[in-house]
């Protein structure tokens, strides 16, 4: 007898329950800011990617409203048919100038951007070498291509060179890495990666989802942080959600990259364009981060303070170098229990387990933002101290 849908769903869900990996997302009852409300209770939010506080920023909301009123609720079509509004191209030019690249194109999410760009670039005779901890969207994007795929050990330059030495191609060679790794919070050694890639004639591809808006002057990203923003052999992709407070993805780089993607990137070709209000908010975000340098300053002041506090308590934060601060609890049930106990103390910080992170490395991933105050962070550290001692982690 064939498996029924009910049997499949029941078996899969029961397996997740038994392994302690079944998740039920919390529902926020107010905007996603440093303070929000869950189940009718005000909580301190350490779970969001809202690095600069843009998700509910007055300047972004004002611009979104203006674009909504002038340009309507939706674009009405895919970009290649009748969905490209003047504001879409204006924003892409603004983004290219901000990133210091020859061109930029906006897609629908960071996830689909990796699918679209990798799918458009890579052909069967190409070689791609990917960091073992790259984001799931890179992994899935590469699965859709027919290029030869190889893995190098996380941020290990010697292993990257070994893979390049042992493998060659007459086609395009592409080294793929996250700019900032989303679960560990470390920064890719991009200076060394680009150097080795160039030595073997390879292009470097950087997913800067958690670096854009966080690293580099005015948040221009990891590529800018290492000084490669004008390089034609470095491709930047990322999201417009996290630090930028909206939704969408982007690809920026060589002047001809945009035109190829317009013609070949399937998510671009087969998805309706971004709504005008989103475009307006994103345009305002790029202006605001350059207008107000205190946003980045507060983000990094808060980051340094919180990391120092976590270290002083005796927790393992895995050497994180960015506002992403993991606190390791070991197995998933322990991390989920710690998250539950923190929430009881008014701290919203989400437990993360396998398969998002390796077995035995379950953690709570904290992200401090420019909106948090010193009192907020002290309150969070006090709660972590109590929960860590209760669970025997510190």
Automatic annotation (TrEMBL):
UniProt cross-references to SUPFAM superfamilies, sorted A to Z: PLP-dependent transferases (SSF53383)
EC number(s) on file? 2.3.1.47
Q: Which cofactors, by name?
A: pyridoxal 5'-phosphate
Signal peptide positions on this chain: none
Q: Its quaternary structure?
A: Homodimer.
Question: Which family is this protein grouped under?
Answer: Belongs to the class-II pyridoxal-phosphate-dependent aminotransferase family. BioF subfamily.
Q: What is this protein called?
A: 8-amino-7-ketopelargonate synthase
